[in-house]
Design a protein that fits this description.
Chain A has 481 residues and is an alpha/beta fold. In chain A, 41% of the residues lie in helices and 12% in strands. The radius of gyration of chain A is 24 Å and the shape is globular.
Chain lengths: 481, 481
């Protein structure tokens, strides 16, 4: 038997160990709760246990797996733990894991249709399923990209191309015919938007951050005024990024009003629904995407709140032609005679494209659309529960509305108004809760106020976990007194 | 038992099916050769067999897997087939698959040190192992990025930052103080370099493509002359991209001579060794990176020729400070109190970062450095063998040197000099060989000549496969006569 495809391992050894790994994964997912969710490792704890130089000779897989358990695992912060409530919680669901196992073994690069017709056609199909689930019009076409950071970069590259200034050919620098480009987003937009502006050569100073209302939503009137003033001052407004589910508070920008402005001003509207977008799968939450049918591009991340293992971000656009115009570049060695097929390499930055459609297909089929909706609905219900506990406690205050599954709150006892002191209290509460290993929370600042966030998004998170966090927080408050 | 972490599947059902999937993978890797390497599917063959709308209710995993086998598999081009000899062949080796299974289950996002210390520290360690294996100096620090397309984009963003023109803050457009930026690469550089120039706002016309010598290597004198002329004409040269292992012929640019020029001119040197770089692991091939110790950045892709499942590209740089200066952007919700730790989100575009270090660690340990080197050495030997058959046959000609594991050749019988006719012959030979399902080849053009490429890079490819390709090619030639 030729061992080579297995790379030194015997095929039957791979089969045996592969099944042990499946046992490990099954037990891990059943018992993730038994690990401290937030790794207790100190800097360099992991690295100093590992040899600084690579081994010349092969090591046994048993040894490697033993080291994985002994050294690596204690340095893992458990994103699949039901007490993971930081940032945006996510899940590697079982159907997604099975699909990733197959995709990894196939190791397809879906750059061209011919390099695996199934990869391209399943990506077309499954992104269209998602489009239907979100209630977006049929004019939107989807492409799977690794992360929303890159999806938004791709969308904004297309937006820049759409201003028809031969930017692709001539670039931006040293040109007398080209005014400074201007990009708009709210002060609560994700940092990836500003990063995209840096990469694209727009510059951070050319990102105009529009103020928000009391509920952290972009002020549409301020947007209109800013565009008008910028035009007067010789800027070239080229894109607005609105957000459905901002990172700090999950606020929803007024997309319809923003779309009105973009339409009137002929500016590309990109909507970042990386987290919040998938909530539109829940019929009674469909409204969160109101107005998005008029967006030029829209991104949502199944790897955030649709139980898909990292990474999987879906970018939709009504202007595939513009996207391709911005990105398509076909050297001789990638030319084909396949005719009118879709080569996804033309849609973005990356030439190497993993077969990510497979996991999304497995997940949508295994959960069913109603099954996905019921999980998202439950997460939102849990958030409402938590919010009600906060609201009912006179020593706490809620700092933002709860349109999705994230609650922003802080400890704020009567009589204390010093922000520094409140920050000290709340950061201490959070760090102490995180140190218990039972829950992992993160923070933000809202109007200068230090804010604890609880973000519910893991499949395994149930009412008992959320209740336990509230208990842990209250325990820490007692210690402060 | 709480089923929720498994997303509707029963844990024991997941365990059982997971093991069936391991059986499937084992049998697949053992028998990949029995599938047609190049999918015989016609456009829409896959999509039309699948329902256009997503299911409302859950479907059984057995049904989904049956559809995977019945519908998806026939539309797969088998990158793990030993007859896959197109583009750059790659491999999802067994140790890499095991690691990906674990990484998928953990579903870690290594954006911050604290979001999994092991992910960050193992990435530091394993990229340093790779650095040692390649013989790069200790001044190089590594980061794992999804693809070389993004790695080069990141490197060139840092290069742009290094010219100190406040590009990050002010961007490129509408500025009177900023000359047009100029980027240099050979005419054989990968298309991703031009794509990066488009994205960065440099523009395609600002990519100066330096001519090559008879062996497809960048002409260093022409580079020096171009820079000098551009400076005279008011351009601002900011980066040179040299290649170790160009895509068409795997030629190696004269890195030392180019480094001399870059040093003298104070221009960032980025080396694209996405394919060829890993060959430096072979002691007697260490020379392929001669001069790369003086590069400012260097990229190589373990997912190309180091048996690592997609995706895994390693970017090295001697200027981590500049990289961070270009990219670091830390909103409040990502601020930590962890002190002097490395947060890899500061090193590039993406915030979401899969735990890719794990597979590289498994692979290096399971193969051992010598084991990896012996496989690469064998691939190069096979290429030399194939080249010798081409050279010995008067009806064929070899169109480029063979420094690595790729052979460029064509059928060129005596008396035929019409390039159109030769292209017709050779494209027909290639398409017919691909249609057999036994081998998958791709093509390029060299000095206007249609060229067939055979790229050896899959672990399972042995002498018999290479010999069979030669037989298939010769069979097609007989049919032409």
């Amino acid at each position: 038997m030729d061992k080579e495809p297995f790379g030194g391992m015997d095929p039957e050894e791979f089969r045996k160990i592969g099944k042990e790994v499946v046992d490990w994964i099954t037990d891990y997912l059943k018992n993730a709760e038994k690990y401290p969710v937030f790794s207790q490792a100190k800097p360099d704890d992991i690295k100093r246990q590992l040899p600084a130089a690579p081994p010349a000779s092969p090591e046994k897989m048993e040894t490697i797996l033993a080291d994985f358990n002994r050294i690596i695992l204690p340095g893992i912060t458990h994103w699949n733990h039901p007490g993971f409530l930081a940032y945006f919680a996510n899940t590697a669901s079982a159907p997604g894991i099975l699909a990733e196992m197959l995709a990894t073994a196939l190791n397809v690069n879906g750059m061209l249709w011919r390099t695996s017709p199934s990869a391209t056609e399943l990506e077309e199909l499954v992104t269209d399923w998602l489009r239907q689930m979100l209630g977006l019009p049929a004019e939107f076409h989807g492409v799977i990209i690794d992360t929303a950071s890159v999806s938004s970069l791709v969308a904004l590259t297309a937006a820049r191309e759409a201003v028809h200034k031969r930017v692709r050919e001539q670039g931006l620098s040293g040109r007398t015919d080209l005014p400074r480009l201007r990009l708009y987003c709210s002060e609560h937009a994700h940092s990836s938007i500003e990063k995209a502006a840096i990469i694209l050569g727009i510059g951070q100073e050319s990102v105009c951050k529009i103020s928000s209302d009391a509920e952290f939503r972009m002020n549409a009137k301020a947007l209109a005024a800013a565009i008008e003033e910028d035009r007067r001052n010789g800027w070239l407004p080229f894109a607005v990024v609105a957000t459905v589910g901002t990172t700090s508070t999950t606020s929803i920008d007024p997309i319809s009003a923003i779309a009105d402005i973009c339409q009137k001003e002929n500016i590309w509207l990109h909507v970042d629904g990386a987290y919040g977008g998938t909530a539109a799968i829940v019929p009674e939450m469909r409204y969160v995407l109101d107005g998005c049918d008029r967006a030029d591009s829209f991104v949502t991340n199944p790897h955030k709140w649709l139980f898909t293992p990292m990474d999987c971000s879906v970018l939709f656009t009504q202007h595939v032609g513009t996207l391709k115009q911005a990105f398509s570049l076909v050297p001789e060695y990638l030319k084909t005679t396949d005719g009118e097929v879709n080569n996804y390499m033309d849609w973005g930055v990356q030439l190497g494209r993993r077969f990510r459609a497979l996991k999304l297909w497995f997940i949508i089929r295994s959960f069913g659309v109603d099954g996905l909706a019921s999980r998202l609905r439950e997460h939102c219900r849990l958030a409402q529960e938590f919010a009600s506990w906060v609201d009912a406690d006179k020593d706490f205050e809620r700092l933002a509305p709860v349109p999705f599954s994230v609650v922003c709150f802080r400890y704020h006892p009567n009589g204390i108004s010093d922000e520094t002191k409140l920050e000290q209290f709340n950061s201490q509460i959070m760090e102490q809760v995180n140190a218990t290993g039972e829950a992992f929370l993160s923070h933000t600042k809202l109007n200068g106020r230090y804010t604890i966030r609880i973000a519910i998004g893991n499949l395994a998170t149930a009412e008992k976990h959320v209740a336990r966090v509230w208990e842990l927080v209250k325990n820490e408050v007692v210690k402060l007194k």
